[in-house]
Amino acid sequence: MGLLTHRVERSELKPGDHIYTYRALFTYSHHGIFVGGSKVVHFRPERNLNSGSETSADSDLYDSTLNRPSPCSIFPDCGFKQPNSGVALVCLDCFLGKGSLHCFEYGVAPSVFLAKVRGGTCTTAASDPPDTVIHRAMYLLQNGFGNYDVFQNNCEDFAMYCKTGLLIMDKTGVGRSGQASSFIGAPLAAILSSPLKLLMPSPVGVATVTAGMYCMSRYATDIGVRTDVIKVAVEDLAVNLGWADHPEEVADDRETSTPLIAI
């Protein structure tokens, strides 16, 4: 367990693990669920499900390799996804690219969470059993995870839902992503602490207060401590988020949806 991240070796991976890798010189991280067999289910910027147009603002945050699938010499089904869905199945090599492998931590103590300088690496929420996690990931591979949104429905949100089944009821705030919370929390902490410069002549004191506010803002948005989260079965996810026009469509999906990819 590192102070910044939790780097692991491939031999340490277990099916159902939430993994991530850093891109663009550690500017941001990309997340997915390891489902075994050297395969990963992940969520990426894709075409808007309503308009059919690609969300270029979201795509700018990702490597072009994620949006432009290339033939994989290892797994013929690498890159499999349903039409108009951002959820895809890729091999571990393609998921990592040239990045290192990290494992997202669940059920950490508040002290450990606050000690992590960077968001998007752990949560105080507990993980569900691996079989449940893999079931959610494979179901969403067949049925999608809605429209990609940098702050409310990104790759980390996808992986955290697969691991916990938790859904945030407030649709106007930040989603489950600790990475998104960090992007918002850092400037917010700087703004809130700026009036304290008049009371604290020491730059060290101001920096300490700013860092404290940043950590607390991250902690307050963690799904393990939030009170506006509910447990939602993956089969009911589309209805809860308004992806399905009619509830009976989801009921039909429950009966007809079968895995197309062997793990």
What's the total helix number?
A: 10
Q: What CATH architecture do you see?
A: Alpha-Beta Complex
Q: Let me know the number of strands.
A: 8
Order of helices and strands: EEEHHEEHEHHHEHHEHH
- What's the mean pLDDT score? 75
Give me the oligomer status: single chain
Structural class, judged by helices and strands? Answer: alpha+beta
Cα-atom Rg, whole angstroms? Answer: 19 Å
User: Please, what is the CATH homologous superfamily?
Assistant: endopeptidase domain like (from Nostoc punctiforme)
Tell me, what is the CATH class? Alpha Beta
Domain LRAT: 20-179
Protein name: LRAT domain-containing protein
Question: What is this structure's SSE topology?
Answer:
Elements: E1 18-23, E2 28-36, E3 39-43, H1 56-59, H2 64-67, E4 80-81, E5 87-91, H3 92-96, E6 102-103, H4 110-115, H5 130-143, H6 155-164, E7 166-168, H7 178-193, H8 203-220, E8 229-231, H9 237-241, H10 247-256
Antiparallel strand pairs: 1-2, 1-6, 2-3, 3-5, 4-5, 7-8
Helix pairs in contact: 5-6, 7-8
